């Protein structure tokens, strides 16, 4: 780490930011409002530290808008230490309240007066739809409020002139994920974790007693939590406000449940959003569903209402990045509602969803929720409901699915999706066990729809996986492909899968059996596959790292000052160490991609020693396992121990293979499901092109990696990605997450520059074009 970096001359939008916000007299107020959401504290921490970094004063506004209206001791200046050790704390340390006073102009006049007296002209609001709507109104009225205050003699004309514009930026804190214009709101991922933890626990008892469970989750007006949790656990049925079941749903649901039991499935899971309705806008309750199942089918049925459990607990990995980025945009929040900051179209969009539901235009409601919601719903329907065999046109194609490389959480969800989408496309699906070694030995078996039931929530690789490449088994693999008539191949794995793709492509001339569509879906905790920003499994691994770091830091509570040295996996790829360090609040993260020497280590130790002389009692240092041949974990531990004598002591921990284990996170379950389903659609389209033509696939675009880049799924020929790969170190030559290194250093109180590229600017909300690909 470049702990001794000196500030560089800022450029572009960041220079404009510094010009407007840095220096004496500039002040930011931060408040949390409405319902609490896990991750709010992480956002507050990032806002405070980024604000201090640019030289502004930052004020806590306690108890949301009520504190802003009441003023006095509710608005307090924050310092660096004010936000120490809050990353892992749920809820909000500055309190939240629903405020009726702020809804009146008189209340907003009081709030404006309190802000002006302290010189606060930039406001960061963390809350839901109502909170951000209030902030938008407040910003719009600001100049008029100041003029009225001056007229009443409560502020001076000079103050009106000096504080005539209010910069406002909103961060959406809502577990419902009901806000248009953002992929995921603060708290949503945490709520999904709570739901999936409960579902996984319930499934074991339901299987034991052959029970049906009806789970009610939050979402009065938005069915996101219900939909995504249904997708993540493979629920039998889901009820949403935006997409009510068709007329006669009672009979259809009972038929579906009984069919699943006939396939020897020992449990049924039904998920209900608390705001679920039918096509006549009448409520559908969990008790009503229970009575239906008991009366019609006689199944032992239980109802579980999760309630406020979904709001509690420690926030997972997706918790720290938003806050720092939003402070950078404070000066961009102009009075024009279409510029970055408080954007008028986003409120309009949110209100339009409710209007569409009220008018029973449910298709419009789903589309207004956004591409991701619509894609989730379509994927769920396709994977949950199997059409009768007589209604599925046969393709006469056999498609193989194989796992390659180290296991990664979410692999099984990807296999399940591939099998079910393949069957729905009319293909015969074949599972290949134990990687390419098993392929060569003929460990291949046809796999059916019911065979993959319950796979979504299981960790590891049920098919078995090995790191062995196909190179030395080419003849045997080709023979097995002939024997089983394999028409296409889906490979799910990490860097070894990428290398396997290259080997099969390279040997097409000598083995015509390889002249078929071959697609790779990236699955590795290291996130080191070229052609994708994320891989299946890396989110689960990061959650393990962050949770472990939180527990380790907590173990030092009440003791003397202590620094923990944590080693992460990842090979030469520093993704886990860097992103884990960012989310866990690390003081340093050593990675291979950013070379360091003894001077950097010494500088980091000195920096941490100075911090430990304040009220900060715990330090955290992450090290990627292959970041340096000589600066080992033991070396760094001994160096910090020696140099910190008298100030802090040290402990070390090597996380090891616990990063590969455990049940997949909701993100990895859904990501694996959706990316694998998309891969099978691509394979099907290729096979349809050659139907009846006996066509051999020889072009480069028939051997692809399916990755995600800037929210969009992208198929890229492996031959093109070869040029972008560092094969010696098994990493891509360029990695997007390295741009976040400065943010981690700033939040750890280093003096480094933080450049905001033009490409990262906020995008206005746009209606989706007909040909625009659905987002993940």
UniProtKB/TrEMBL annotation:
It comes from Capra hircus (Goat). Gene3D superfamilies: 3.40.50.450, Phosphofructokinase domain (3.40.50.460). This is 6-phosphofructokinase. It catalyses: beta-D-fructose 6-phosphate + ATP = beta-D-fructose 1,6-bisphosphate + ADP + H(+). GO terms for cellular component: 6-phosphofructokinase complex; membrane. GO terms for biological process: canonical glycolysis; fructose 1,6-bisphosphate metabolic process; fructose 6-phosphate metabolic process. The lineage of its organism: Eukaryota, Metazoa, Chordata, Craniata, Vertebrata. Its cofactor is Mg(2+). Pathway: Carbohydrate degradation; glycolysis; D-glyceraldehyde 3-phosphate and glycerone phosphate from D-glucose: step 3/4. Keywords: Allosteric enzyme, ATP-binding, Cytoplasm, Glycolysis, Kinase, Magnesium, Metal-binding, Nucleotide-binding, Transferase. The keyword Membrane does not apply. One of its GO terms (molecular function) is identical protein binding. Pfam families: PFK. InterPro entries: 6-Pfructokinase_euk (IPR009161), ATP_PFK (IPR022953), Phosphofructokinase_CS (IPR015912), Phosphofructokinase_dom (IPR000023), PKF_sf (IPR035966). Its EC number is 2.7.1.11. Coiled coil: none annotated. Belongs to the phosphofructokinase type A (PFKA) family. ATP-dependent PFK group I subfamily. Eukaryotic two domain clade "E" sub-subfamily. Residues 28-316, 398-683 form the Phosphofructokinase domain.
């Amino acid at each position: 780490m470049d702990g001794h970096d000196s500030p560089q001359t800022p450029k572009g939008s960041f220079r404009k930011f510094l010009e407007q916000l840095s220096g004496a007299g500039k002040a930011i107020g931060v408040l949390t409002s409405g319902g609490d959401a896990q991750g709010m504290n992480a956002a507050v921490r990032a806002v405070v530290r980024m604000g201090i970094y640019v030289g502004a004063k930052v004020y806590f506004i306690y108890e949301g808008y009520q504190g802003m209206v009441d003023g006095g001791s509710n608005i307090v200046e924050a310092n660096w230490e004010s936000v120490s050790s809050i990353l892992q704390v749920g809820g909000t340390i500055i309190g939240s309240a629903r405020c009726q006073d702020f809804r009146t102009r008189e209340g907003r006049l009081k709030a404006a007066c309190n802000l002006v007296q302290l010189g606060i002209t930039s406001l960061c609001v963390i809350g839901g739809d109502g909170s951000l709507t209030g902030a938008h109104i407040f910003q719009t009225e600001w100049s008029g409020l100041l003029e009225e205050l001056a007229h009443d003699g409560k502020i001076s004309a000079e103050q009106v002139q000096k504080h005539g514009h209010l910069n406002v930026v909103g961060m959406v804190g809502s577990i419902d994920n009901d806000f248009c214009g953002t992929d995921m709101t603060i708290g949503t991922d945490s709520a999904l974790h709570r739901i999936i933890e409960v579902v996984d626990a319930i499934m074991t008892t339901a299987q034991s007693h052959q029970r049906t469970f009806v789970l009610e989750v939050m979402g009065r007006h938005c069915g996101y939590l219900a939909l995504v949790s249904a997708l993540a656990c493979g629920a039998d049925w889901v009820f949403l406000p935006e997409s009510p079941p068709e007329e006669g749903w009672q009979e259809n649901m009972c038929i579906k449940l009984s069919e699943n039991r006939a396939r020897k499935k020992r449990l049924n899971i039904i998920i209900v959003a608390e705001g679920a309705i039918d096509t006549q806008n009448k409520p559908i309750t969990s008790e009503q569903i229970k009575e239906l199942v008991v009366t019609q089918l006689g199944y032992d049925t239980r109802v579980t209402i999760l309630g406020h459990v979904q709001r509690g607990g420690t926030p997972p990995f997706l918790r720290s990045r938003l806050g720092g980025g939003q402070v950078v945009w404070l000066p961009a929040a102009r009075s024009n509602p279409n510029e970055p900051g408080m954007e008028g179209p986003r409120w309009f969009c949110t209100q339009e969803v409710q209007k569409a539901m009220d008018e029973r235009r449910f298709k419009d409601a789903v589309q207004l929720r956004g591409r991701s919601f619509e894609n989730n719903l379509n994927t769920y329907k396709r994977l949950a409901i199997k059409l009768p065999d007589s209604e599925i046109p046969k393709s006469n194609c056999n498609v193989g699915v194989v796992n390659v490389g180290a296991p990664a959480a979410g692999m099984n969800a990807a296999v399940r999706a591939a099998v079910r989408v393949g069957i729905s496309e009319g293909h015969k699906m074949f599972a290949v066990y134990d990687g390419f070694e098993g392929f060569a030995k003929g460990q291949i078996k046809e796999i059916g729809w019911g065979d993959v039931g319950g796979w979504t929530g299981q960790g590891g690789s049920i098919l078995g996986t090995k790191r062995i490449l196909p190179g030395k088994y080419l003849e045997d693999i080709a023979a097995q492909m002939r024997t089983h008539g394999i028409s296409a191949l889906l490979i799910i794995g990490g860097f070894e899968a990428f290398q396997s793709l290259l080997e099969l492509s390279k040997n097409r001339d000598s083995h015509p059996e390889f002249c078929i569509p071959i697609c790779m879906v990236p699955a590795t905790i290291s996130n080191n596959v070229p052609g994708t920003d994320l891989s299946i499994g890396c989110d689960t691994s990061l959650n393990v790292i962050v949770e472990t770091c939180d527990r380790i830091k907590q173990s030092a509570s009440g003791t003397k000052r202590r620094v923990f040295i944590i080693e992460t996996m990842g090979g030469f790829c520093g993704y886990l160490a860097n992103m884990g360090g960012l989310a866990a609040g690390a003081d340093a993260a050593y990675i291979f991609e950013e070379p360091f020497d003894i001077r950097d280590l010494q500088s980091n130790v000195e920096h941490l020693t100075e911090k430990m002389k304040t009220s900060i009692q715990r330090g955290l240092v992450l090290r990627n396992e292959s970041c340096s041949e000589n600066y080992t974990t033991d070396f760094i531990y001994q160096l910090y121990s020696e140099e910190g004598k008298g100030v802090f002591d040290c402990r070390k921990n090597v996380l090891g293979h616990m990063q590969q284990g455990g049940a997949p996170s909701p993100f990895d379950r859904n990501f694996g499901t959706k990316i694998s389903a998309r891969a099978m659609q691509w394979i099907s389209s290729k096979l349809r092109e050659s139907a009846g033509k006996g066509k051999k696939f020889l072009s480069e675009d028939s051997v692809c990696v399916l990755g995600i880049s800037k929210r969009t799924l992208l198929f890229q020929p492996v031959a093109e990605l070869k040029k972008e790969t560092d094969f010696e170190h098994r990493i891509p030559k360029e990695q997007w997450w390295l741009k976040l290194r400065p943010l981690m250093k700033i939040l750890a109180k280093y003096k480094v520059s933080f450049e905001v590229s033009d490409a990262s600017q906020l995008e206005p909300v746009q209606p989706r074009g007909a040909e625009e690909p659905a987002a993940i």
